[in-house]
Design goal:
Alpha-Beta Plaits, 8 strands, 3-methyladenine DNA Glycosylase II, Chain A, domain 3
């Protein structure tokens, strides 16, 4: 009986040793050599895996850059610092791109809007928005279920008072929230922007104001008084051209509904 047990253990041991040897030999002869360039590029990337570059993650982007299939300046979170590192690794000149921050063009708080319905269903902005534009009286405003916050890779977005808020200090400008928002009211603006229109309502003034006390009424006072011609009213809502805006604040002073805000004080 004991001999049988010992024999079985010996057989198992021999099989284990042989399997180990075979695996070691196979790993030696069939191993895939790691591309040093890919490794260096991957180490230079921030590791956010945000997808802002257009690739699934930092690993995929690193491989694409090393193979010459992607530009080295597509890493939004890394911005100029990463672009410079990749420039050194690849030995080429890289034009850097300034990253921006996400901005929610809505100030439709609970005090400014009202509820036209009680929503009971899947707690997502997309699902709620499919039913008559959402529960809020303003169909263009933030739904407030936090789809944007859910996809943010750095927890830079939170929902307060039924309205999404972006922390510019944490935001890396990856744009995931922009793609996720079903109302398309989130955009990427320059980091140094000081002025913003906190409304996306495209209805005519009286209707917009009725549905939200903080709405833009399309009066064009901002457009007519802007010394830089940086702001225009399109589809009944003011839009800022940040390539022209000097941040003088004239539009803020002339806005009758105060929907244009100084971001440093908002």
């Amino acid at each position: 009986m004991v001999e049988n047990i010992l024999t079985a253990l010996l057989v198992v041991g021999v099989i284990g040793v042989l399997a180990g040897v075979l695996l070691a030999v196979a790993s030696h002869f069939f191993k895939v050599e790691e591309d040093e360039t890919v490794k260096k590029i991957r180490e230079a990337l921030p590791g956010a895996n945000c997808g802002a570059c257009g690739y699934a993650g930092c690993d995929s982007y690193a491989e694409a850059v090393a193979q010459g299939k992607a530009e080295p300046n597509l890493c939004i979170p890394g911005a100029a610092a990463v672009a410079d590192k990749l420039s050194e690794i690849l030995g080429v000149s890289v034009e850097t791109k300034d990253s921006g921050v996400a901005f929610v063009a809505c100030n439709g708080t609970c005090e400014a809007t009202s509820k036209k319905a009680v929503y009971e269903g899947i707690e997502t902005c997309e699902a709620s928005g499919m039913l008559f534009g959402g529960a809020s009286s303003c169909i263009y405003g933030c739904v407030g279920c936090g789809d944007c916050a859910a996809v943010c890779p750095v927890d830079a977005i939170c929902v307060r008072n039924s309205l999404a808020h972006v922390n510019p200090e944490l935001c890396i400008g990856c744009g995931k929230c922009v793609k996720t928002c079903p109302k398309h009211i989130i955009s990427i603006i320059p980091k140094n922007a000081t002025t913003a229109v906190m409304c996306s309502n495209k209805e005519k003034g009286a209707v917009a104001r009725k549905n939200c006390k903080n709405a833009c009424i399309g009066c064009k006072k901002c457009q007519l008084n802007c010394p830089e011609n940086a702001i225009t009213v399109t589809n009944n809502v003011a839009v800022i051209d940040y390539s022209k805006c000097s941040g003088c604040g004239v539009c803020i002073d002339n806005c009758p509904t105060k929907c244009i805000k100084n971001l440093n004080k908002a």
